[in-house]
DNA sequence: CAGTATCCATAGGGATACTG
DNA sequence: CAGTATCCCTATGGATACTG
């Protein structure tokens, strides 16, 4: 059986060997806050304070940490204006848009089905 | 401006309010091992021992815990045959296949781009 | 084979206070 | 406004040993 799918080798090689780069990137993208920040930025750039409010429940520490990783991975661009008071905008890069294009369908499905999943879960 | 996207309300309402069910399901799906187990099962059912080998680096404890959550959420079906030695198969449910259909494009993109992302990261 | 039980370490992450 | 710095706690998760 020949499978053309890029992940077809998973059954023989294992799912993303622990040391390969994909694991690191995957961990960043699927980190607790990474997904939410990416989704938040998917409709346009946001300032630090806006991100804090939009991503409900995130602490300053986690926002800073998450943004640093996403910027380092090239998903998010940081635009700091040296004004007083300071103004910093965060926006998706082209790479970030490619990523969220694949992330949003997943998020849509989850939000659409979460209620059914959770209520059904309570029954069991 | 009218946005038809299901997530369009994010900017006004925040990204998935902390207490909503979506957050819980999202955490399960994007948990460190959840994604990898789902991807591993995306090409067919696997036994416990096969999963352990295929999902590189997972401990027995985490495999058990991850499977319990995925089964409870209805993404994975557990089929235990009362034979000696015991044989237990895990497979995606219909809901699980709906989910992985959205997960695989994301994983493909990540595996395809991870190397570039990580090497570029080292430069900075 | 397919798990459970137990112990233990560490890092994820919250709260608060402070700064350019 | 946009962050650091610090303290501190608990949940995540690894290693090992055991069981039906």
Could you walk me through the main structural features you see in this protein, from its secondary elements to its overall organization?
Two copies of one chain form a homodimer. Chain A is mainly alpha-helical. Chain A has helices at 10-13, 21-29, 34-41, 48-54, 60-72, 94-123; strands spanning 46-47, 76-81, 87-92. The first copy, chain A, has a single domain (21-123), classed as Winged helix-like DNA-binding domain superfamily/Winged helix DNA-binding domain (Arc Repressor Mutant, subunit A, Orthogonal Bundle), CATH 1.10.10. Chain A has a three-stranded antiparallel beta sheet with strand order 1-3-2. The mean pLDDT of chain A is 88. Chain A binds a DNA duplex (20 and 20 nucleotides) through residues 32, 47-49, 52, 59-65, 80, 83-88.
Structural class of chain A: mainly alpha
Distance between the ends of chain A: 38 Å
Number of helices of chain A: 6
CATH class of chain A: Mainly Alpha
Instruction: Tell me the major beta sheet of chain A.
Output: 3 strands, antiparallel
CATH topology of chain A: Arc Repressor Mutant, subunit A
Strand percentage of chain A lies at 5-15%
**Chain pair sharing the greatest interface:** A-B, 60 and 61 residues
Helix content of chain A: 55-70%
- So, CATH architecture of chain A? Orthogonal Bundle
Oligomer: homodimer
The tally of beta strands of chain A, per DSSP, is 3
How many structural domains does the protein architecture of chain A include?
1
């Amino acid at each position: 059986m020949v499978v053309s799918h890029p992940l077809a080798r998973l059954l023989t090689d294992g799912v993303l060997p622990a040391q390969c780069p994909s694991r690191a990137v995957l961990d960043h993208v699927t980190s607790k806050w990474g997904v939410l920040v990416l989704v938040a930025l998917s409709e346009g750039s946001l300032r630090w304070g806006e991100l804090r409010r939009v991503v409900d429940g995130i602490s300053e520490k986690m926002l800073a940490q998450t943004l640093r990783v996403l910027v380092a991975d090239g998903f998010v661009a940081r635009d700091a204006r040296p004004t007083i008071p300071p103004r910093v905008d965060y926006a998706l890069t082209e790479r970030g848009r490619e990523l969220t294009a694949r992330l949003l369908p997943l998020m849509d499905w989850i939000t659409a089905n979460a209620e059914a999943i959770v209520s059904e879960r309570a029954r069991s």
